[in-house]
Amino acid sequence: MKKLLQFGLLAVLMVVLAACGGDKEKETTDGGKDKYVIKAGHAASEDHFAQGSFEKFKEVVEAKSDGRIEVQIFPNGQVGGEREMIEAIQLGNLTMAAPSSAPLTAFSPGMYLWDLPFLFSDHEEAHRVLDGEIGAEVLTQLEEVGIKGLGYWENGFRHLMNSKRPVEKMSDMKGLKMRTLESPQQIKAWNATGANSTSIAFTELYSALQQGTVDAAESPLALMYAQKFQEVQNHLTLTGHMYSPWPVIMSKKFYEELPEDLQQVVDEAVLEARDHNRKLSAEDEAASLQLLQDAGMEVVELSDEAKNEFRETMKIVYPDIEELVGAELFERLMKEVE
Prior knowledge:
Layout: H1 2-20, E1 36-41, H2 49-64, E2 69-74, H3 82-91, E3 96-97, H4 101-104, H5 123-130, H6 133-141, E4 147-162, E5 177-180, H7 184-192, E6 196-199, H8 205-211, E7 216-220, H9 221-226, E8 235-251, H10 252-257, H11 260-294, E9 298-301, H12 304-314, H13 318-325, H14 327-337
Parallel strand pairs: 1-2, 1-3, 5-6, 8-9
Antiparallel strand pairs: 3-8, 4-7, 4-8
Helix pairs in contact: 2-11, 13-14
């Protein structure tokens, strides 16, 4: 019965993706040129700045292409969770997405770099590294699996939430049923703090928290509020344990079939949307903290001693990630952030 249910859900997802169509529509502009349609999906709600980021991309692409490219946006996990969207891009059933980096590790090991806990001290450092040589190299590695990496948008620094008790020190983590990002290294890092961790697709997280399948999770503040997690979580600890980028990805086949001038349009639009996205992120992060408090969440700020305890404990995954990405790339990143 379980296998039949899984097959049925997969069939429904493929029907939805098929309804989105292929990469290129069989139509032309008034000038007789090919018209291209970008189908872009994301897992966040329409209230989250992810939607605003894609809308900015759409605005720039459609204006600069003189109508030769149309962008269609599918929010709220309409075309599947993040892993499903990545696979759909590989298959050509979806054109574009901006998932968390964690599910991309299953496709390209370089993405593990962004799984390193307490890697970046602030947004500026994260932007410098992601927009620099190392960030570009990690994106280029995606081409080996049929994915074009276009840049990095921002999800924000991640913080801990739970429904059981205030977490003021690491010993408070003991026994918490914790949802992590879809990455073995994330599970290992959180288990080291005393939690019992498991990965659950983001599109299933609200119901998992509501039903008590898990009683803790971590998320950027703006995403936390937009997804209404404050309705099912009482406690917020400002850990800032990880900066979460959104690698902007596209079907490599679709991108390479675009005329050169339209490739340039897409590249420029991703960068303009990136700057807009980071502005929205900063604004929403500050506002969301107050909104979460107003909604009744109890907020804890870790002491320097407690934060250092989390940092040193969760660094248990650093040697694993160094082995996965290669010592040379890992060491270059360490020098960049030192």
